[in-house]
Design a protein that fits this description.
alpha/beta; Rossmann fold; about 35% helix
Length: about 250
């Protein structure tokens, strides 16, 4: 599991995450949502061990995230960031293969070929293996970056706005992949702006407002018309279908 215990983080003298307590067990898909500047990506970086909290702590398993050696952490969790930039014109096949680097010189290197092939297929980028990453569209780059994360094959998967540049079909594909990863017994945390996607696929939703955890619970408990309107400053209608909320702005 991952557990945040009263985590606070300051950036530039401003507190962007404030006193967050959160536990995500294996087998759960948690969606982090909230307005721009709510602290979602900063909190995700703390959960990943990429940013040390100014107060509080993050536990990955039974150990503090900061106590892991970088290679050990890379074998424990994988993370997709918002920035998919690559400075050199690597082939797509090479980018995805980079996900296997933490397992070099271990018995699990024997799984490289199968893990890479599975990742390429799941992310729908097998047809791009011969292309240069720098020649791809934004959506294609996002899917290749996701394939690299999938190839890493860790028990914890953290995805920061993985659907931001994707078309409708691939948005659904990415959330189905995240859902499948959770059902395989992994810890999965996804930062999303699309509340309806979060409502459709997440087991629980954590709603952040100005760095604080405003609400945590099942999608139908968190995505209410009153709470969404208050946090986002926008009147919405919430339609519930098969127990899942669909959030529609009132225009």
């Amino acid at each position: 599991m991952i557990r945040a215990e009263h985590v606070s983080i300051e950036l530039g003298g401003r507190r962007v995450v404030s006193g967050v307590d959160l536990e995500i067990p294996a087998g759960e898909l948690l969606a982090l949502v909230g307005p721009n500047g709510a602290g979602k990506s900063t909190l995700l970086a703390a959960l990943a061990g990429e940013r040390r909290p100014d107060s509080g702590r993050v536990l990955v398993g039974e150990l503090e995230a900061g106590s892991y050696a970088p290679l050990e952490l890379a074998r424990t969790r994988s993370m997709l960031t918002q920035d998919n930039a690559v400075s050199f014109p690597f082939l797509v096949a090479e980018i995805v293969e980079m996900g296997r680097s933490p397992w070099a010189r271990t018995p699990r290197r024997e799984d490289d070929e199968a893990a890479i092939a599975s990742a390429l297929e799941r992310a729908d980028v097998a047809h791009l293996v011969g292309r240069r990453f720098t020649e791809l569209s934004g959506g294609e780059r996002a899917r290749v970056s996701l394939a690299r994360v999938l190839a890493q094959d860790t028990g914890i998967v953290l995805l920061d706005e993985p659907t931001a540049s994707l078309d409708l079909r691939h948005q659904e594909d990415v959330l189905r992949i995240a859902r499948d990863l959770a059902e395989e017994g992994r810890v999965v945390v996804v930062v999303l702006h699309d509340l309806s996607l979060a409502g459709a696929y997440a087991d629980r939703i954590a709603l952040l407002e100005q760095g604080r955890l405003r609400a945590l619970g099942a999608p139908v408990e968190v995505l209410t018309e009153e709470l969404v309107a208050e946090v986002y400053g926008l009147r919405v209608e919430v339609l519930v279908h098969d127990g899942r909320p669909l959030v529609v702005p009132r225009r």
